[in-house]
């Protein structure tokens, strides 16, 4: 079971995030659901790079070659993704603030009724 | 059978499970306290994992969490003063219990690691964690009163 | 034994992600997202990715909740006066 | 499109996506498998360049060009936020009155602020040795700087955090990354190639050739970017109000 559980958890988080995004009645809540969707990608990426009984390929306190190591490439991808994701969340929140300034509401349903 | 990993699993499963349930249900007052309490078991678990995996480099993670956890709670305390003003959170007992657990684990690890630079770092993490938790729960229960401005 | 930590962390992450979505109020969601950030950092440490855990701690623990709460405060301050 | 039909559409689309994703994940190699071709080559390449933290080597040496792309995304997001959250004509700044913070909280903020800043800079500096790097250290340092606004009050933060300086710092460090890359071209090798500086002895601060330089540039850029972001958001949430007091 545990050899497919991480992938299923990543799929579950992604689907739950999409459900929240689609049925959200507040744009700020929707931005939160989007960051939940993003964390699904980190879980999947790191689950792909894991190796049983291995440790992190950081050799500051480890003799190189002494122990098996996990895949560093996926970690580098996930690492930058986390920080860029935060700034994109900030940009989306800035847009939500602008929407609330111009239209006075952050409920997507009310927004779609306001033409222009 | 690595005892440290078993202890980490118990601390993480129990502590974070309880705080997750606390943050998911109940009045806002209790949710904020639960968020504050999520730092202690997580930091303790990280230290135990660092010892269980025999990687002293992982203690940096616990150090950053011990620093930024209380900052997150201060954010909530500062920005939610209006909502929390009516019934300020009372969490004396639970905060001290979490701090005592953290202190016990840090001392056990210091004994296991033995006198060295790593022990000094562990003590620093323990001190920051306990101090941060107590101050953050103090800030939550009315430490930042009457904030209109920033 | 190492798998036990990973399984526990995975279940915690799945649980907190579900709670983060089902909670409809943005302020309460910011609280759950802070806990989700910490739980994700623990999972990344269990999967031997300390660098990613460090950045998740810094971003998910303090930065994202602060941004969410500031946005809620700005939107609430505007709407508060219209009524 | 009333909510009922929308929920139905989400259910249908979601189920289809779920079936496909689960089928895909069942066919993925088992979790914890042993075949990681890219990982083994990346570790060998990183050790050849005497970089102890392989992830920093992948980020700033083997994939330095991609990190340049990610850094420009980060820079563009910050520029977008600065433009969107500017103070428009029909708004004025209302000075927030100082918050009265309990003395122990204020003392805690003033004690932990230097420790957190030192930790942030330590995480950046040891990026190519122990876990950490420019991205994480930048965020830790920037969040620590705002501890003062949480512990004391917003005006205390504004006194020690001139936003203009951090906007310039953001731009300077972003260009420093590119200039370090161009130095590779001038030195006769490829853009962002790690062939200019000696690789130094393993597991020391100066090891890894240009990795520490790029690391420091990204660390400074992320720290300045987060400070500018938080400054704009704090201004909006705390100070700026519409003209009619609305």
Automatic annotation (TrEMBL), chain C:
Domain MrpA C-terminal/MbhD: 11-77
GO cellular component terms, A-Z: plasma membrane
Entry keyword Cell membrane: yes
Membrane topology classification: Multi-pass membrane protein
Regions crossing the membrane: 6-23, 30-47, 53-72
Keyword Chloroplast set for record: no
Entry-linked InterPro entries: MrpA_C/MbhD, Nuo/plastoQ_OxRdtase_6_NuoJ
Keywords assigned by UniProt, alphabetized: Cell membrane, Membrane, Transmembrane, Transmembrane helix
Subcellular location: Cell membrane
UniProt-listed Pfam families: MbhD
Protein name: MrpA C-terminal/MbhD domain-containing protein
Organism: Streptomyces viridochromogenes
Lineage of the species this protein comes from: Bacteria, Bacillati, Actinomycetota, Actinomycetes, Kitasatosporales
């Amino acid at each position: 079971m545990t050899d497919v559980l991480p992938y299923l958890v990543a799929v579950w988080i992604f689907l739950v995030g999409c459900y929240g995004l689609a049925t959200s009645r507040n744009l700020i809540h929707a931005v939160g659901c989007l960051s939940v969707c993003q964390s699904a990608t980190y879980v999947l990426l790191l689950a792909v790079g894991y190796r049983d009984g291995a440790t992190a390929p950081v050799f500051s306190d480890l003799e190189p070659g002494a122990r098996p190591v996990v895949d560093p490439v996926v970690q580098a991808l996930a690492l930058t993704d986390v920080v860029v994701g935060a700034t994109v969340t900030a940009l989306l929140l800035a847009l939500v603030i602008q929407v609330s300034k111009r239209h006075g509401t952050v409920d997507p349903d009310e927004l779609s009724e306001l033409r222009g | 059978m690595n005892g440290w990993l078993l202890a980490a699993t118990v601390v993480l499963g129990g502590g974070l499970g309880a705080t997750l349930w606390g943050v998911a249900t109940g009045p806002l007052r209790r949710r904020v306290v639960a968020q504050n309490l999520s730092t202690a078991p997580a930091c303790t678990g990280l230290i135990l994992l660092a010892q269980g995996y025999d990687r002293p480099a992982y203690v940096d993670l616990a150090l950053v969490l011990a620093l930024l956890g209380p900052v997150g709670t201060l954010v909530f305390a500062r920005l939610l003063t209006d909502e929390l003003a009516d019934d300020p959170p009372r969490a004396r007992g639970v905060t001290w219990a979490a701090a005592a657990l953290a202190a016990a684990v840090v001392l056990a690890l210091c004994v296991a690691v033995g006198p060295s630079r790593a022990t000094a770092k562990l003590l620093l993490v323990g001190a920051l964690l306990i101090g941060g938790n107590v101050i953050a729960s103090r800030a939550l229960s009315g430490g930042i009163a009457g904030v209109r401005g920033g | 034994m190492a798998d036990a930590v990973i399984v526990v962390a995975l279940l915690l992450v799945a649980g907190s992600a579900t709670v983060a979505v089902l909670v409809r109020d943005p302020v309460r969601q910011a609280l759950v997202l802070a806990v989700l950030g910490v739980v994700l950092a623990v999972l990344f440490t269990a999967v031997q990715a300390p660098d990613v855990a460090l950045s998740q701690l810094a971003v998910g623990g303090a930065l994202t909740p602060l941004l969410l709460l500031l946005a809620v405060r700005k939107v609430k301050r505007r709407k508060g006066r219209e009524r | 499109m009333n909510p009922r039909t929308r929920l139905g559409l989400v259910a249908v689309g979601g189920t289809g996506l779920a079936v496909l994703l689960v089928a895909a994940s069942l066919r993925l190699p088992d979790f914890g498998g042993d075949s990681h071709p890219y990982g083994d080559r990346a570790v060998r390449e990183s050790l050849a360049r005497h970089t102890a933290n392989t992830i920093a080597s992948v980020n700033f040496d083997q994939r330095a060009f991609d990190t340049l792309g990610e850094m420009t995304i980060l820079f563009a997001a910050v520029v977008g936020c600065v433009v969107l959250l500017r103070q428009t004509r029909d708004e004025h700044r209302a000075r927030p009155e100082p918050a009265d913070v309990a003395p122990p909280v204020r003392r805690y903020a003033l004690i932990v602020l230097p420790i957190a800043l030192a930790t942030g800079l330590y995480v950046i500096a040891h990026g190519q040795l122990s876990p950490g790097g420019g991205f994480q250290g930048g965020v830790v340092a920037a969040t620590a700087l705002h501890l003062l606004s949480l512990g004391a009050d917003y005006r205390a933060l504004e006194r020690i955090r001139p936003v203009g300086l951090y906007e310039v710092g953001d731009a300077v460090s972003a260009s420093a990354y590119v200039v370090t890359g161009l130095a590779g071209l001038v030195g006769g090798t490829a853009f962002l190639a790690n062939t200019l500086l000696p690789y130094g002895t393993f597991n020391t601060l100066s090891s890894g050739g240009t990795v520490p330089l790029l690391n420091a540039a990204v660390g400074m850029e992320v720290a300045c970017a987060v400070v500018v972001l938080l400054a704009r958001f704090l201004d909006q949430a705390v100070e700026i109000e519409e003209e009619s007091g609305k």
